[in-house]
Design a protein that fits this description.
heterodimer; A: 309 residues; mainly alpha; 13 helices; 0% strand; B: 284 residues
Chain lengths: 309, 284
């Protein structure tokens, strides 16, 4: 818990200094860099809005206090509350991330066990190669491939777009399938590889030999003895994947025109809406730390050895 | 069962199997580097030359892969794109490896306070998803090849710092380092002559894997329009542009997609294989 809080503090600090570390006056950067020629009034307005006219330590403390209270300021464009925007967008990103993690786990873990138990047969190198390909392909290539096959080719699913669940549950699900598949490909491959190597590692331990020696059936050795221990590192890996997926969704949301957090970020980029951009990056980092904290808790629940330490 | 307990042929076969990934990955990486180096010789077209008469042309003898919507030769853009991709991938990884090695050894060799500051800062940096931080920095710093290399390079410093830090901590307690210290060698000398040569293996493995990641990140940023500014041929942007016309033709979308995937796959194979060979703990 303490470590997570420390990390959050570090994250907020790094993000605060990021704009100051970039070469150039922050107000000018926000107003468009070298190409734009803002009037002194515009510069003064932005400086006042972002609090850049005050001394750096004051800005820093103000920023930390605001972040701690969840106050992310207002959009430079139209004074909307950034926090409200995030609250509207976050659920839609979660609608992609949560199913994607479930798909990755439900397919990745059994595939890993399958490959590990068939070590030395053709199935293992085949599955491992597919997994390697799975995280060597950029997510946007996988996304476009899915669109080409399932929308253009077969015409089964819509290529892009979003329909709220409340309006049309069936349409919502139809629009959900392709982005979720695209997003789950890489974590699925990583989960599969981790499960496989962890399963193989556990299989070489003495307790497995003991179980076999006392006549436990092979199936039971795999599922009751090996798997229980093999899944521990897999949980950590899935947690890490889930944490970084909020941002990994950026390309998927872009391809499929999914109005989540990251689309908000990309929209704000063209207008250099600094408070919004900063808030999305911060939220992604906070979610990353939060998910990892939950993963650690989960790890302790699953692994009794940790609880006694 | 140890290797000695098996017939020699089985052992050799297993060794070869272990090197298989490197046997595939290393030639592929070499081939890509050659294509990038020889790009002007391999293709005759200027990758940026516009041809108003042959816009979005299908493959033909003049343009083996056809042309894009501006009439630029796709094969030339693909081959010249390899230069950009590898330049960004390799330079940013070198930057990250050098930065990470310095920070990692400093952290391992200085007092508790410096070590804590460096390593916690790295933990903090790792919380930011690279693509978001990349988007953030490129937007405010401006699009250019140099900025892209700097951003990706800095983003990957923490990985190298961690690897170097933990390897250095393990090695500096070994007897030969202790004897060097007993002979009066300075810390700098010990790091340069006793430690660095021995942590090269994990750095190399990390570098190969990071190159794959860096290329994925570069292509993602290019895909979002934040890569090297046009008309520089970049695979990520080529995917994005040809994706808009996928209803008309899928092939222009296929080539750059395959190029990125193959490049990343080659580096991953090389990295995975090197790790298996160089890390004795993984041999079973």
């Amino acid at each position: 818990m303490g470590l997570s809080l420390l990390l959050l503090f570090l994250v907020a600090t790094l993000l605060f200094f990021s704009i100051h570390l970039l070469p150039g006056d922050p107000a000018l950067l926000v107003l468009g860099g070298d190409s734009a020629q803002p009037t002194p009034e515009q510069i003064a307005t932005v400086q006042a809005r972002l609090g850049l006219d005050r001394p750096l330590p004051v800005q820093y403390v103000t920023w930390l206090v605001r972040v701690a209270r969840g106050d992310m300021g207002t959009s430079l464009l139209d004074d909307r509350s950034v926090a409200t925007d995030l609250a509207n967008r976050l659920p839609r990103t979660l609608q992609l991330v949560i199913p994607a993690i479930l798909v990755a786990t439900i397919i990745g873990v059994p595939l890993g066990i399958f490959a590990a138990r068939r070590r030395g047969h053709l199935a293992d190198p085949t599955a491992s190669t597919v997994a390697l390909l799975g995280f060597s392909m950029p997510v946007f290539v996988i996304g476009m491939l899915l669109v080409v096959v399932f929308s253009l080719g077969l015409g089964w699913l819509p290529p892009t777009g979003y329909v709220p669940f409340g309006e049309d549950p069936k349409g919502f699900l139809r629009h959900l399938i392709l982005p979720v598949l695209a997003l789950s490909a890489a974590p699925m491959a990583i989960t599969m590889r981790m499960t496989r190597s962890s399963f193989l590692e556990q299989s070489s331990f003495d307790y497995v030999r003991t179980a076999r020696a006392k006549g436990v059936a092979e199936r039971s050795v795999a599922w009751r003895h090996v798997l229980r221990n093999a899944l521990l590192p897999v949980i950590t890996v899935i947690g890490l994947q889930a944490g970084s997926m909020f941002a990994g969704a950026v390309l998927v949301e872009y391809i499929f025109s999914w109005p989540g957090l990251n689309t908000l970020l990309l929209n704000s980029l063209s207008t250099r809406d600094y408070p919004v951009i900063q808030a999305v990056v911060l939220l992604a980092a906070v979610l990353f730390v939060g998910v990892n904290f939950v993963t650690d808790l989960l790890y302790a629940v699953v692994n009794p050895r940790i609880r006694y330490e | 069962m140890s290797d000695q307990a098996k017939p020699p042929t089985a052992v050799s076969l297993r060794r070869l199997r272990r090197y298989k990934q490197v046997l595939v990955g290393a030639p592929l990486v070499t081939l890509l580097l050659l294509v990038a180096a020889l790009a002007p010789i391999l293709v005759s077209h200027d990758p940026n030359a516009l041809n108003a008469r042959a816009k979005a042309a299908p493959p033909n003898w003049g343009n083996l892969l056809g042309t894009d919507e501006f009439g630029r030769d796709l094969l030339s853009r693909l081959v010249h794109g390899a230069r950009i991709t590898l330049l960004v991938g390799v330079s940013s990884v070198i930057l990250a490896a050098v930065g990470g090695t310095i920070l990692g050894t400093v952290a391992a060799y200085s007092g508790r306070a410096v070590e804590t500051v460096i390593m916690r800062a790295m933990d903090g940096m790792l919380c930011f998803p690279p693509i978001l931080l990349g988007i953030f920095v490129v937007t405010f710093l401006g699009q250019s090849l140099i900025n892209l290399i700097l951003v990706i390079g800095i983003l990957y410093i923490p990985r190298f710092t961690r690897v170097v830090h933990s390897s250095t901590l393990a090695i500096r307690e070994l007897e030969y380092v202790e004897s060097a210290r007993a002979l009066g060698a300075s810390s700098l000398r010990i790091i340069a002559w006793a430690i660095l040569p021995n942590i090269l293996a994990p750095i190399l493995v990390q570098a190969s894997l990071a190159a794959g990641h860096a290329i994925l990140l570069e292509s993602g940023l290019s895909f979002l329009g934040l890569g090297p500014p046009p008309p520089t041929p970049s695979w990520g942007r080529m995917v994005e542009q040809s994706g808009r016309f996928m209803q008309l033709s899928v092939l222009p979308l296929f080539w750059p997609s395959a190029a990125i995937s193959l490049t990343v796959l080659s580096f991953n194979l090389l990295g995975d294989g090197l790790r298996d060979i160089l890390d004795p703990r993984l041999r079973n």
